[in-house]
Amino acid sequence: MNLPEVTTRAADAGAFRLATGAPGTLSAEGPLTFASARGACALGAAALAQAGSGRVEIDCHGITSSDSAGLAVLLEWLSVAKRTGRSLRYVRLPAGLAALARISDVEELLERGV
Q1: Angle CA(95)–CA(32)–CA(59) in degrees, nearest 5?
Q2: Contact at 8 Å (CB) between 67 and 90?
Q3: CA atoms of 113 and 105, how far apart (whole Å)
Q4: Residue 26 neighbours by CB distance under 10 Å
Q5: What one-character-per-residue DSSP string does 31-63 give?
Q6: What are the start-end ranges of the E strands in the chain?
Q7: Is a pLDDT exceeding 70 seen at residue 63?
Q8: What are phi and psi of 17, to 5 degrees?
Q9: Is the model's pLDDT at 8 over the cut of 50?
Q10: Is beta strand 14-20 parallel, antiparallel or unpaired with respect to 87-91?
Q11: pLDDT value, residue 50
């Protein structure tokens, strides 16, 4: 998979981007919050569309801040992957995002992926 790096900038929120790594790997970097969620959702959907039928892994260690909108973005990316027959898995969720997923009862889904 040869994906271009994609970035979105939300006013005063910093930049959220998906950077390419090893084949089939993306790194989520920056704030994943209400301010960046709309653009981030589109970036992930575009990255999944370019991924072909291979397995995609998103390393979330670089997410600098998150909220419930950020969690919704990760869930939407799983939904896009499932609808299009792709495989998606998240690794290294930040502690705050993992805690939000736990209290929302979706932690296992994020860890397992589709």
Answers
A1: 60
A2: no
A3: 14
A4: 26
A5: EESTTTHHHHHHHHHHHHHHTTTSEEEEEEEEE
A6: 6-10, 14-20, 25-32, 55-66, 87-91
A7: yes
A8: -145, 160
A9: no
A10: unpaired
A11: 85
Output the pLDDT for position 12: 34
Indicate the DSSP class of residue 3: P
Q: How far apart are CA 114 and CA 109, in angstroms?
A: 8
pTM of the model: 0.86
pLDDT by residue (tens digit) across 12-39? 345 999 998 888 899 999 999 999 999 9
Q: Are 84 and 48 contacting, i.e. CB atoms less than 8 angstroms apart?
A: yes
Q: Residue 111 half-sphere exposure, CB side, CA atoms within 13 Å?
A: 10
Question: Please, are residues 10 and 35 in contact by the beta-carbon 8 Å criterion?
Answer: yes
Which amino acid does the sequence have at 91? Answer: V
CA dist., res. 96 & res. 57, Å (int): 20
- pLDDT number for residue 4: 43
First and final C-alpha spacing in the chain? 18
